[in-house]
Amino acid sequence: MAFDGITLSALVSEWKHKLCGGRITKISQTEADELLLTIKSDETYRLQLSASASLPLACLSGENKPAPLTAPAFCMLLRKHLSSARILDILQPDLERVVLFRLQHLDEMGDTCVKYLIVELMGKYSNIIFTTEDYQIIDSIKRVSSFVSSVREVLPGRPWFIPKTSEKHSLLTEPLSDLRGLLSAYPVPVATALYQCFTGLSPVIAQELCFRAGLNPELPASELTDDAANALTAILLWLRKQITEELFQPTIYKKDGVPVEFAPVMLRTFSDYEEYVVTTLDSMSAVVLSYYHEKDTVTRMRSKSADLRRTVQTAIERTAKKLDLQKKQFEDTKKKDRYRIYGELLTTYGYSAVPGSKSFTCVNYYDNEEITIPLDPTLSALENAKKYFDRYAKLRRTGEALTEHLTASEQELAHLLSVRESLSYAREEADLNQIKAELTDCGYLKFHKDSSGKKAKPAKSKPYHYITPDGFEIYVGKNNYQNDELTFGLANGGDWWFHAKGIPGSHVVLRTGGREVPDEVFNRAGALAAYYSSGRDAGGKIEVDYLQRKNVKKPGSAKPGFVVYYTNYSMVVTPGIAEDLTLAD
């Protein structure tokens, strides 16, 4: 779901009731593009404002995120002007993805004055801008010069305005008497025409409007009939009423326990399908937080792990290229038996070869068929035989060495692929530090020493810990060090061990506590093993191996996370996290 104008309208409605009249007691810049304002009203609220290019959002948050020890310049500027400022009003211009906080504070002389804190939630153009009462920019969290944007500069001293890159109509004030005429100007499907025509609509809401009106969203807008236009007009008027009368229904839709969509109104396009779990919450902020928290965490971690990803990807490409070369060389060594046969036949029959000949034909006593052996005419038959025996010996030695190198390269590649998969599970700094330690120990990164000159020890991160309704505990390793710790440290011999078959993934341990495990618990653990593997986004079901932990072995000097087993059961499951599983701290 795009963070559209209707979602922002629901948030502004909530903020007006809770924040207007309140005072800003604390300002933190928790990320380079994110502010956290603490506001004291009838209660204490935290307002999270993010201008992230990938996940911009604004909502009330219960989480107090840590701020850097040294506040950035923009944060210091806001503290100077807005400490103890009172929120007079919160405005949203005509369903634009822009919200203006009208703030009253005392200047250096003790006089009352008004400023605006403006939050623009426009994808990669998102920004947080601080202006005077007459909209002159004081500063912004992202400065935009004319070299970056030809539409509008966002620099101190420049005027602030909402850039009009396209002429859209207002959903709140447009008469809608000629909807057919409005949409027919757009040579696109009717759903696309809706969000291109009206401010504040997202593609998801446009699809929902078509669904409620009984229209095919792919129908060309120019082919709308009068009846279809009337039905769509009625739905647009319904949506207008929901917005103007603040009749919002903050709803989130989950599949396999993962949020996949949210909206400020009920989406019948999702509600009619059984695979989606529909949850209606009391506030739009709660919905936005629930949906964005996981996605924001993943996005932030991907940004912070970018260097590690590059290191791992470079090592994967180098190892894969080395492995391909070794495989080609190994294929060449398969010629060795032919050279041995040439040498043996020349030793046996070479006395009949004509000196100076370029070839010699004889019967191969291995298959009783004629064979022609190429010869060096400058050498005798026995000298040619010795030459072929030397080639055979060299290729045999090469083949023996390559067999070991191939095994090592395949294991190295499998290890690197598992590390790359582990990076996708990282949710906090400690997870990344543990992966970084693994890469350092394996020689892919240089050692970093602490102030005492010793090797720096990473903070320990915890594996995922799920609890079933009947009290069984399931642990999932986030990286190879955790995998080893779970399998050979935490698990007992009678506990059950799960892993996606033949692909990188986490070790999953089901602790039995000496009890008999029901089939549905096995299925939940298997689904987790499939979900935390490289096959979870491939679609369809995944085969998972499972066996008792006592039958899992780790070879000597094996890479972290590498194990072997010879007897196991298998199940085919759909990757996912069961709704009734509780994620423990």
**Would you count the extended β strands for me?**
21
Mean pLDDT: 90
Helix share, percent: 25-40%
Strand order, biggest sheet?
20-19-17-18-16-15-21
Q: Largest sheet, if any?
A: 7 strands, antiparallel
Distance between the termini: 29 Å
Low confidence ranges: none
Describe this structure in words.
The protein has about 575 residues and is of the alpha+beta class. Helices cover about 35% and strands about 20% of the residues. It contains 14 helices and 21 strands. It has helices spanning about 5-20, 75-80, 180-185, 190-195, 205-210, 225-245, 270, 285-305, 305-335, 335-350, 380-425, 430-440, 480-490, 520-530, and strands at about 25-30, 35-40, 45-50, 55-60, 85-90, 100-105, 110-120, 125-130, 135-140, 250-255, 260-265, 275-280, 360-365, 370-375, 465, 475, 495-500, 510, 540-550, 570-575, 580-585. The strands form five sheets. Strands 20-19-17-18-16-15-21 form a seven-stranded antiparallel sheet. The protein has a five-stranded antiparallel sheet with strand order 5-6-7-8-9, with helices on one face. A hairpin with a 5-residue loop joins strand 15 and strand 16. Helix 4 (about 190-195) packs across helix 5 (about 205-210) and helix 9 (about 305-335) packs antiparallel against helix 11. It is elongated, with a radius of gyration of 34 Å. The two termini are about 30 Å apart. About 35% of the residues are buried. The model has no long low-confidence stretch (mean pLDDT about 90).
